[in-house]
Design brief:
It holds the Pfam family DUF3224. By secondary structure, the protein is mostly beta strands. It has no helices and eight strands. The protein has a single domain, classed as SO1590-like (AOC barrel-like, Beta Barrel), CATH 2.40.350.10.
C-alpha cells in the first residue's frame, strides 16, 4: 500500500567545498545538513554537485536520511536530479535499513513564499 509522509525541514548547513569554472559554466560541490520534523523525523546529510551558467542550472545529489518515517526507525538514501526539466527525488533501491528496510518510492520538495521547506515522501514499505 502506498503511503504519504509530510514533514518540514530546516537547512542546518550549506557548505560549498570546491568550485571550478571553465567555458562559462561553473561546477561546485556542496555539503548540506538538514533537520526534519513531522511524519518524517530526523536528520540528513547531502552530497551535491552543481553546474550553472548564464542560462541554466542543474544538480545531482545523494542524501542519507536517518530517523523515522511514520514512527518506523531506520535510514535510506535519496537520489536527487534537478535541472530545467524539473526535480526528481527517488529512494535508492536497497538503501533502507532497520524498520525501513525494503522502502521504495519518491519524494518532492516545495518552498513557500516565506522560505519554508516542505518534504513529501510517497512510499511503500513491505509489512507496513
Amino acid at each position: 500500500m502506498t503511503r504519504t509522509a509530510v514533514a518540514a525541514f530546516e537547512l542546518d548547513k550549506w557548505d560549498p567545498q570546491a568550485q571550478d569554472e571553465a567555458g562559462g559554466t561553473e561546477f561546485a560541490r556542496v555539503l548540506i545538513e538538514k533537520t526534519f520534523t513531522g511524519a518524517v523525523e530526523g536528520a540528513s546529510r547531502v552530497e551535491m554537485l552543481t553546474a550553472s551558467n548564464e542560462t541554466s542550472r542543474a544538480y545531482v545529489a545523494f542524501e542519507r536520511f536517518t530517523g523515522s518515517v511514520d514512527g518506523r526507525k531506520g535510514s535510506f538514501v535519496l537520489r536527487h536530479t534537478a535541472g530545467d526539466e524539473g526535480l526528481s527525488l527517488v529512494l535508492l533501491p536497497g538503501s533502507g535499513t532497520d524498520e525501513l528496510a525494503g522502502i521504495s518510492g519518491s519524494a518532492d520538495i516545495t518552498v513557500d513564499e516565506a522560505g519554508k521547506h516542505t518534504f513529501t515522501l510517497v512510499y511503500e514499505l513491505p509489512g507496513a
